[in-house]
Amino acid sequence: MAQVLIVDDDPDLLGVCRVGLDALGHQVRTAETASDGLSETAISRPEVVVLDLGLPDLDGVEVCRRIRTWSDVPIVVLSADGTEDRKVEALEAGADDYITKPFGMRELSARLRVAVRHRAAAGSESATELQVGLLHLDLVHYQATYAGRELDLTAREFEFLSYLARHAGKVCTRRMILENVWGPGYASELNYLKVYAYRIRRKLGDEQGQFLQSDPSVGYRLAVPGEAS
Amino acid sequence: MKRTAIGTLAALASMAVLTVAMLPVRGSLSIATTALVLVVPVVIGVVVGGFAAGVISVIAGFLVYDFFFIPPYLTLLVGRAQNWVAAIVYVAVMLPVARVVAAMKASRARESRQATELRELFALSGLLLADKPVDELLAAVVTTVADVFGARQVAVLLPQAGRLAVAASAGDPLTGEQLSQVLPPPGSLAQVGAQPQVSGDVLVHALAAAGRPVGLLVLSPGSAVQSDREPLSLFANQVALAVERAQLREQVLQTRLTAEMARLARTLVAAVSHDLRKPLARIKASSSTLADEEVEISPEASQSLAKMIDAEADRLADLVQNLLDMSRIQAGVLEPRRALVSVHEVVTSVLADLEPSLRGHELDLALDEGLPPVDVDRTLIARVLTNIVDNAVRHAPKDTPITVAASAGAPGTVLVSVADHGPGISPERRDEVFGLLARRDDDAGAGLGLSIARTFVEAHGQRIWVEDAPDGGARFCFTLPATQDAEAEEDSWVGSGSHRR
Predict the structure, then answer these.
(1) Coil, helix or strand for A213?
(2) 20 to 30 Å CA-CA from A61: which of A117, B10, B463, B478?
(3) Among A122, A3, A5, which residue's Cα sits nearest to residue A63?
């Protein structure tokens, strides 16, 4: 289904992923070091890159940053840390999603598919209308409907939602949202996010946060219906 | 009392000698001369025995003078008025002389004792400054106090686990009866007065620093310091300060130690969770693929996944074993259960167990013949060897041989070594690799293995080190305690063997 490049320093894990993802219909290439990963990304042009953050020769976050200077290939970060800081760092360096070790093969596969699909849809950056699942946003008139029902959103709420919609499926870190929606001076106003996310969910009728998902201590994302995540 | 008796005897003896010496010539001696000579024994008596001995000497002197040297001889009668004068003057002069000499002597003795006390106090304060551990300090204190005050029993009592207990003592230990006299009711240390108290034959002095009671100084017999309360208080104050200081210092050390342990624990948890996650990631990736019914993979692939799960489960088991060993060490319950075993047998059985995890490394065995049996905890030493070989497997390039050798070491030891063809270890890191969490740059795992190896070897009182292998790579060596005389042991084995039969 997708051409995947996995960069991880554990050859045994690479072997298993090759078998598993292969069986799930992906074409898998692997690299054991950051430098191999970078050149493989440039040469074989994979549709999605899975990147371990703990590589021996170069930090994974830096690899992310370097790839982003010349490619917008989706990057799913593989972190063994479990620490939120590293994930946030990677997302802000340009990663699209993350998955924590140990992970199941089906989950990895699903994340890869989502990442690939969003990159394909994201070409319409200058669009005047956005559709994510049941949510429709008219960016010109600041009008939002959810399942055909018109939403009464404030301007800031609309901007929050449209920022997430533009990056639907991708985890947006709290700082990315604050700086883009509120402005550069607001990067530490974490409470705004909680309050706005709460209000928007209420207006959407999504109190459980299944559509507007939060990743505790990392950020928010709009889920694309029909895709496991 | 004893001093008085000795002084009196000395006076009487010298008096007898002088009297006998003067008797033959008493006719030609004037009464005044005789009286003058008889001053000598009195002075001797006072100097040796003090004032009381002096008084006895004066009386004895007077009697001797009257009896032998004042005519009529051999009676206590005093003839002429002139003789009366001599006898009265003798007594009248000698008594004040005895008094003055005795006072001088007493003050000399007091001065010398004060000088001693001062010296001892000085030495003690030097000791306090020297930052000795509190036990050592207390031992010095009680000995000094016993010396200075000539006490038979001296003890310092400090609170331990909420109750006062003897922390140091000199001379005879306090009896239970004495202790019960001394000990205040539980929890009422604060009520012990600052002034020394005498109860029975013991004297109790509270130790207080900055108004806070820290313990008790107990002395017996209490009469030893009847006249010497002040210097005792000085000592007590010094001791109290020292005790408080040492306790504070120990608290500081304890706090630092706790902080260090906490830091270590955090590092350990981070490293261990990394180590746990790696095999877990492989297992989860494999098992989730195998368990997924919609995924179709070839039998070969599923076989390889199953093998992966199996191997990684072993790895996790090893890790857990290492963690258990580690906790055993940290709990301080590591006591080798020694028995005589053959080095050959231990090495070969450990290596046989390791066979599946050698990842293509070939093992070269170089075990000398005729090695004496070693007296070790088989389980611990097996783990030492396992961890070292495992370390070599992980760091040496694939397909290079690993050499395990055993030979006679320094007298009474057998030397076991494991040599690999890896990158080796630079001299400055050779100590470090045995430290907790040490790891080589290319390895992110927790460095528990070598640290455990060192602890286990050292628990046997033996040594472990790493050096350059002759043909490149690292060689880890450790010694094992051999039985001193192999043949004698062999005999005793036979002996005990036949016993059993």
Answers:
(1) strand
(2) A117
(3) A5
